[in-house]
Write a structure and sequence with these properties.
The complex is a heterodimer of chains A (about 190) and B (about 170). The mean pLDDT of chain A is about 95. Chain A is an all-alpha fold and about 190 residues long. Helices cover about 70% and strands about 0% of the residues of chain A. Helix content of chain B is about 75%, strand content about 0%. Chain B is built from eight helices and no strands. The chains are: A mainly alpha (about 190), B mainly alpha (about 170). Chains A and B meet through helix 1, helix 2, helix 3, helix 4 and helix 5 of A and helix 1, helix 2, helix 3, helix 4 and helix 5 of B.
């Protein structure tokens, strides 16, 4: 652990939130992930845009932050591994993502591109989030403590040095992208 | 028609660079769903009153309904997509996406009902897991968080099963 770093503080932080969010919104739209068809077809293995965008972001951001963290220029922000809650939440999330056709971020960006179903789903998200807030005390008492591993990172599970994990991540991304490229060259069986 | 699209690998790389900037300059990971939970608290204010919202543990501690870095990030992402869509001429009002129409027909009511239910389910899942495709999928995975990789894998499996049940019969093109 080391001292908290933040070059941007106070009211500037609010402007930074707006600016960084703006850039994120532009990138989601330009990446093509504000489209119902693109999202659902990822889960059908007919379009790999979502995987390409996410995996490249993970590799570039991950390797960059691994280096910067080594120079003590950034802090980790690890979400706790409440395993039961994470798994149940992720299973619900996958179902919701296919029915809604967007995820929370791409849904908001899709509203801005004129998708009215994304707007209706956003109203659903407000209701669902309020429902979660109202259930929170019960969930915090009964679900979150089950199989709680704490704020663990994968490198802490083994004795391998951290750079090996990031090297592995790069290799995994290269293999996945090569497989996707090969898959995309092969004409679909039904056509 | 799709001229607004950039190469997905380039977009992914730029989101990675944006992550590096938010972590180092603002000490914040990219995330969206907490901001939506904050907005839900703001919407609950007229119903429950300020005291009612403040008495709720989640809105009092985890997702305070206020304009802060996280909620402004969400607002910014809306305007970013809006400007990008308008500038590129790709803004278009649409109620029923083509893949949905092919499978479930042109009914707007049916699509809106499903989108609403999907929205309820996805955000409940995101809050239970403490993150969404942004907070866990990108920000958490790039930090090699155990919670985030668990989320990523379980979410993809669930999405694949759901998509094959609902949309397998649609044409492959």
């Amino acid at each position: 652990m080391h001292t908290l770093l933040a070059f941007i503080t106070g009211s500037n932080l609010l402007w930074a939130g707006l600016l960084f969010g703006f850039i994120f919104g532009v990138l989601l739209h330009r990446g093509g992930v504000t489209d119902f068809n693109v999202i659902v077809k990822q889960f059908l293995f007919r379009d790999f845009t979502v995987l390409k965008v996410m995996f490249t972001a993970i590799v570039v951001g991950g390797v960059g932050l691994f280096i910067l963290h080594g120079q003590e220029l950034s802090n980790w922000h690890i979400k706790p591994a409440h395993m039961l809650a994470v798994i149940l939440g992720a299973l619900l999330f996958g179902i919701g993502m296919v029915i809604y056709g967007y995820c929370p971020g791409t849904g908001i960006a899709a509203i801005a591109t004129g998708k009215l179903d994304a707007l209706v789903g956003f109203l659903g998200m407000l209701v669902g989030a309020a429902g979660y807030a109202l259930c929170y005390d019960w969930i915090a008492a009964n679900i979150l403590p089950v199989a709680d591993l704490g704020k663990k990172r994968l490198p802490e599970l083994t004795t391998l040095p951290e750079w090996v994990w990031y090297a592995g991540l790069v290799v995994m991304a290269a293999v996945v992208f090569a497989l996707v490229a090969r898959f995309e060259r092969t004409p679909s069986k039904s056509s | 028609m799709k001229t607004h699209l950039w190469n997905p690998y380039l977009v992914g790389a730029l989101i990675g660079v944006l992550s590096i900037l938010t972590f180092t300059l603002a000490d914040k990971p990219i995330g969206i769903s907490t901001g939506i939970a904050q907005a839900s608290g703001a919407c609950a204010l007229p119903v429950l009153g300020a005291d009612g919202v403040a008495a709720n543990t989640y809105w009092a501690k985890k997702a305070v309904p206020a304009w802060d870095y996280g909620s402004l990030f969400v607002l910014g992402s809306f305007f970013g997509a809006l400007v990008s869509a308008v500038v590129s001429g790709s803004f278009k009002l649409e109620s029923v996406p083509s893949l949905w129409r092919e499978r479930f027909g042109p009914s707007v009511g049916k699509r809106f009902l499903a989108a609403f239910i999907g929205g309820v389910v996805i955000i409940f899942g995101a809050r239970l897991a403490d993150g969404c495709t942004s907070g866990h999928g990108i920000s958490g995975s790039l930090q090699l968080a155990v919670s985030s990789w668990t989320f990523f894998i379980a979410m993809f499996i669930s999405g694949i099963v759901t998509a094959f049940i609902l949309f397998r019969s649609t044409s492959k093109s």
